[in-house]
Design brief:
Layout lengths: L2 H103 L7 H21 L11 H16 L10 H4 L8 H25 L6
Helix pairs in contact: 1-2, 1-5, 2-3, 3-5
Length: 213
């Protein structure tokens, strides 16, 4: 064996072992760090996706809350307008007129008969004007029949009974149901007013901010 062949014989296994050791160590160090970097990027991307989802959820909650806030404030404003401009005054009319009307109807005010009739006519005019001007605030999609009957019956009374001491509604009209004062009108006004007041209190209690301590 010459000198060159001898070196190949001894160096071949040594170099093979050295290269193998380097290759064996390479995946452990390089690919290990590479895997960590890839895992970190994946975690960041996943975190960003979760943050985006949470942001969308937060936006949805905020929008829903904003819509709810607008809706209850709009309803509160409308209910307060109904009460202040239509049903509150109508409620006062009904409550303050009922007993005097019944006393007059029972013939217990003969000495002031014309005075009472004139007073009722004035009240009737105010109430009819209120119903016409504030018709958009009437609860429900249509004007109740009782309101139309109220207008008819009070006009008949004002035209026939109110002008004089002896004035009265002709019998042919008193027998017509369309000319009779509708009790349903009073009931509608009283019940709707009480419902409105209860609803307004409920909205304030449920949504309004409490007073600071």
């Amino acid at each position: 064996m010459d000198l060159v062949e001898a070196w190949k014989f001894f160096l071949g296994p040594l170099l093979g072992g050295f290269v193998g050791a380097i290759i064996g160590a390479f995946p452990t160090n390089y690919f290990g760090e590479r895997g960590k970097n890839l895992a970190t990027k994946h975690d960041i991307k996943q975190l960003q996706e979760e943050l985006e989802k949470n942001t969308e959820i937060t936006k949805g909650v905020e929008q829903a809350y904003a819509r709810q806030d607008v809706l209850w404030r709009s309803e509160l404003q409308y209910r307060e307008q109904q009460l202040a401009e239509l049903y509150g005054p109508a409620y006062g009319y009904v409550k303050t007129s009922q007993e005097l009307y019944l006393l007059w109807l029972e013939g217990k005010t003969p000495e002031i008969n014309l005075t009472v009739k004139k007073w009722m006519t004035k009240q009737n005019e105010v109430m009819r004007e209120l119903l016409v001007k504030k018709a958009h605030l009437i609860e429900g999609s249509e004007m109740p029949d009782s309101m139309m009957r109220f207008a008819t019956s009070t006009l008949i009374f004002d035209f026939y009974a109110s002008p004089s001491e002896e004035g009265r509604v002709p019998e042919r009209l008193t027998k017509d149901d369309r000319t009779k004062y509708p009790k349903a009108f009073d009931e509608h006004v009283i019940k709707t007013t009480e419902r409105l007041k209860a609803r307004i209190e409920e909205l304030h209690r449920k949504y309004a901010q409490p007073l600071p301590p």
